[in-house]
Amino acid sequence: QVHLVESGGGLVQQGGSLRLSCTAPGFTSNNCAIYWYRQAAGKQREWVSFTSTRDNTGYSASVKGRFTVSKDKAKDTVYLQMNSLEPEDTGMYFCKTAPEGCGGYKDWGQGTQVTVSS
After folding, report:
1. Mapping DSSP to helix (H, G, I), strand (E, B) and coil, where does residue 56 land?
2. How far apart, in whole angstroms, are the C-alpha atoms of residue 38 and residue 62?
3. How confident is the model at residue 2 (pLDDT cuts 50, 70, 90)?
4. Nearest to 50 by CA among 42, 40, 63, 39
């Protein structure tokens, strides 16, 4: 079973920045989109951003203008640059391929924790 690998999380002060990485070998060759999600403690997982096979991107209203998603196809890695972080951005961040199971990635990865202090 293959798993996506998220990394780059950490503790940052309000207003700071972090860059998350999602490594998914084969997602480019399998024409997968990549979606970012996050889950705060005690809350449901929510969609944050996506990048499509045609390099279209999208963002939730809560992060638009602050987060930027990009990809390095040669490395099969997608990045989420997060600027002007707010305490409300705190949570575990996950990436997922789309459509469901694309590239053989059926399960969620372990995620990477982002904590923003006020």
Report:
1. coil
2. 12
3. confident
4. 63
